[in-house]
Design brief:
Layout: H1 4-15, H2 22-33, H3 38-48, H4 52-61, E1 73-78, H5 81-85, H6 88-99, E2 112-117, E3 129-131, E4 134-136, H7 141-154
Parallel strand pairs: 1-2
Antiparallel strand pairs: 1-3, 3-4
Helix pairs in contact: 1-2, 1-3, 2-3, 3-4, 6-7
C-alpha cells in the first residue's frame, strides 16, 4: 500500500505544485483510507507551499472529503426533498436500527459510518444512498436491511 507521502509526490508530479493539485491529492488520500488526517494536511500544505489552514478549509468544505476517521464503509443517504418525499425517513430509520447508530456515528466494529449528503443526483430513483461509491436506489426498509447484511457477510 502506498504511503501518504508517496501519493502526494505522485500527484505533485502529475499536476505540479499549483493549487489545482490540491483536490486530486485530497481525493487520492480519501480513496486510500476514507479520511484525511491533520498530519496528512500538513504534508500536503508543505508539498504545495500553501497553509495547512487552506488545505483544511478545502477538505472540510466538500462533503465527500472526510477530515475525521470513518468506518470501512461510509453510507451517505440522500437528503434531497425528492428522496424525502419518497420515504427517506423510513429508510434512514431502518439504517439506524440495523446499524445501531445515529446519523454522524460509526458502528462499534468500525465497519459502517452513517452520513447524509445534500443530493446524490439520483432523485428519479430515490430514496437513494451510496456505500462508499456504490449507489443503491429505490430503497425500502427491507432492502436496506438486506444490503447491510450483504456487506457484513463480505467481511466474515
Amino acid at each position: 500500500m502506498l504511503e501518504i507521502s508517496e501519493i502526494i509526490q505522485e500527484k505533485v508530479a502529475e499536476h505540479g505544485r499549483e493549487r489545482k493539485a490540491l483536490l486530486p491529492i485530497l481525493q487520492s488520500i480519501v480513496n486510500l483510507k476514507n479520511y484525511i488526517a491533520d498530519k496528512d494536511m500538513v504534508q500536503i500544505a508543505e508539498a504545495l507551499d500553501i497553509s495547512a489552514a487552506d488545505v483544511y478549509g478545502t477538505a472540510s468544505f466538500y462533503s465527500f472529503l472526510e477530515t475525521e476517521e470513518k468506518g470501512k464503509y461510509v453510507i451517505r443517504v440522500c437528503k434531497s426533498i425528492t428522496c424525502e418525499m419518497k420515504g427517506k425517513h423510513c429508510v434512514l430509520k431502518a439504517l439506524e436500527d440495523t446499524l445501531k447508530v445515529k446519523l454522524g456515528e460509526t458502528t462499534h466494529d468500525g465497519l459502517f459510518s452513517l452520513e447524509q449528503a445534500n443530493c446524490l443526483g439520483l432523485c428519479d430513483v430515490g430514496p437513494a444512498m451510496l456505500i462508499n461509491e456504490q449507489p443503491y436506489t429505490k430503497l425500502t426498509p427491507d432492502s436496506v436491511h438486506e444490503i447491510i447484511t450483504e456487506y457484513r457477510n463480505k467481511v466474515k
